[in-house]
Every structure is written in C-alpha cells, then in structure tokens.
Amino acid sequence: MRKKTSKPSYAKATEGKDILSLINSIQKIISTKPNINQMFEEVRMMKFKIKPIQGDVSAFNLKNERFIESLWSLGKLDEFFHKEFPQLSKKEQEVFLRFFDNLYFKYQQQLNQIHLQPTRMPLTKTGLLELEIYKERKLKKKLTSMKKFPVVIDLETKYTFRDFSEHAKLGITVLALFDYKDKSQKIFTEKDLSELFPILENCSYIIGFNINSFDLPVLQPYYPGDIRHFKTFDILDDIKRILGRRLSLNDTIRATLDKKKTGHGLEAIDFYRDGKWDELKKYCMNDVMLTKELFDYGVNNKKIFYLNENGKMNITVDWGKYLEDEGGKEMPLTLPF
User: Fold this and answer.
1) What's the Rg (C-alpha) of the chain?
2) What is the mean pLDDT of the chain?
3) Nearest Cα to 34, choosing from 84, 5, 83, 75?
4) Count of alpha carbons within 13 Å of 246, Cβ hemisphere only?
5) pLDDT tens for residues 101-156?
6) Are residues 65 and 176 in the same domain?
7) Strand partners, 174
8) Domain count, the chain
9) What is the CATH classification number for the domain harbouring 297?
10) Residues 28 and 117 in one domain
11) What are phi and psi of 115, to 5 degrees?
12) Contacts of 316 (CB under 8 A, 6+ apart)
C-alpha cells in the first residue's frame, strides 16, 4: 500500500506548483491570523509609513484591532507578491495579477471603511482624519515584469452642468480605458467601477483630456479614497500651460491627426436616456482611442497642431516622459475616516 504524502501549503511556483495552488497559499496565509499583539509587532516590522494629510493623527487610536488587521493583511500580500511574482512565467503573472489586484483592493476598501474612535477630541472642527499610508520598497535590481504603465481614460455622465452644478451629482454612465500595459481596451459601467480602481491604483499615470477638471472630480464619489493622489497627465492642462488658452479635443485631433470625434457630449447623454448602451460605449471608447492617438503623436513627434487664423500651428510638447516614467513605486492608500 502506497503511503500518501501531504503537499506543503506554501510552495514556490518554481517547485512545480500551479497558479491555483499559489492562490490557495496566499488565501491560507491571510486567513491564518495571529493574535492582535503579534499582528501589531509584525505590522511595525513591515515599515508602513503613515502621513497625516488632514486632522490630528495623535488624537486617534491607531492600535484599533480592525485597522491593524487590515494593515497586516496588506503587508502579507505585499511580502507574498514580491517573493513569488518574479518567479512566475509571463502567462502565470497575468493570471495572478488579476486575482491579486482584486484581493488587494478588497483590503484597501476594508481599510477605508474603518472608523477610528478618537482618544480625545480632534483639533479639527469636523473631526475628519485623512491619512496617506504607503510602503516604499528599494529593489536591488529593476524587475521589468513589474513595470508600471499609463492608462488613458474618458467617461460619460448622466447629467450636464445645466442639471447640476456639482461634479459629484453628474453621475457616470460608462468609463472607457486603454491600458498600455497589455494594449487592451476596457469599458466599465457605473456598477462595474469597483473593478476599475485596482487598475488605476497600479498604473503609472492616468492620461486624458480635461481629466483633472472634469473626469476625476466626477469619479471621486465612487472612489473610497482621495482621487487627487493619483498621478495624472492632463493633455488640456499642458496645452493651456503652453498656449495660455484652451483648445477642444476635436479641434486638436483634426489639426494633428486629420480625424474628428464621432459626436459630442450631449449625444452621449441622449444615448443613455434612450437606453442605447452599445452606441454609448462605442462613443466613449472612440474618445479614448482618439486621445491615445493624440498622446502617441505628441510622444513620437514632440509636437501637436492646432488651427488659427494663420493656418496650422504647432505646439512643441515633451510627453515621452509620461510613457517611460513609472510614476513612483509606492501605492498610497488615502483613508477618509
């Protein structure tokens, strides 16, 4: 009779473990938590950095059990990732990243929802505490498999500023995204936005046209942290910085690419109200791809064009750095308690 031997619960991918076993291992590590005192000591060794943004951090109990437990889980995920990920094949990395991003975001949301009870009255009138928590990792060598890439986004809303003056009330119908990491196009409806946030958390830059003044403020009510901490490159902001005035996306792509938008923003709202979701998604993705083409043209040619009374004029740009720069290694978690 052959004696069965049990497999170790934690084994490296290089030892023949398939990706499912690796996922099971990380789930087992997270579920097997030590007591709170040991977790607290381990969190101290993980070297998280806590940066107060608003409020008096000393007034709050940062030894809150749920707070420590969430930090511990994120720290364990971070350790596991940096130990195992470089040893996976490219195909395994793609599968593992999809699982890891969703799990990591789950614990980020858990952290954002914790209410820390003050040990004394905070110094702010509202009692609001906002922290930035991050880990800085110094690698001995650069891992190309972990390189960050930018994304290009555009979104459409349910309402216009004629209906509401506040960005937070405009509502999102769809958000389209192009990911330079795998050259993929993705569409998110309002109910799918939680799947978007891990992508934004892990990209180098969010690129778009007027995103700092419109898209991101509209997206803020859906995001549990502070969206201002994402690294962005706004093409319109750069044009205004150089020319001193605004240009529309349509005018810029007509002069630079000899193309034009398929419609305008009000048409997108009509698509939503008429239930024409396929047309709405196509319209939004078309805007993203035109913005990407404009950005790529500026990167490759170091200039874009616009039209005025004297004909076609060029604007010298320096956009290549936003494609090459990884936007920093740390991933901030902004916690609005």
Assistant:
1) 23
2) 81
3) 75
4) 7
5) 777 777 777 777 666 655 555 444 445 566 667 665 544 334 334 578 999 999 99
6) no
7) 156, 189
8) 2
9) 3.30.420.10
10) yes
11) -105, 110
12) 242, 302, 303
Q: What separation in angstroms does the CA of 263 have from each of 214, 249, 269, 270, 294?
A: 18, 12, 11, 11, 17
pLDDT tens digits, one per residue of 221-250:
999 888 888 999 999 999 999 999 999 999
pTM greater than the 0.70 cutoff = no
Interior CA angle at 331 toward 325 and 332, to 5°?
125
CA distances (Å), 131 to each of 6, 216, 302, in order?
44, 20, 38
Distance of CA 259 to the CA centre of its chain: 29
Q: Does residue 127 sit in the same domain as residue 164? A: no
Task: Tell me how far apart the alpha carbons of residues 114 and 175 are, in angstroms, rounded to a whole number.
Answer: 28
Count Cβ atoms below 10 Å from residue 209 Cβ, excluding itself.
Answer: 25
Amino acid sitting at position 312:
K
- Take residue 208 and report the two structure tokens written for it: 């778009």
CA–CA separation, 135 and 139 (whole Å):
13
Q: What is the pLDDT of residue 55?
A: 64
Query: Which residues lie closer than 8 Å to 254 by C-beta, 6 or more apart?
Result: 260, 307
**How many Cα atoms are found within 13 Å in the side-chain-facing hemisphere of 324?**
6
Q: What is the pLDDT of residues 301-331, one digit of tens each?
A: 999 999 988 889 999 999 999 998 876 555 5
Coil, helix or strand for 250?
A: helix
Scanning the structure block, which residue is given the tokens 């093409």?
235
Place of tokens 């076993």: 21
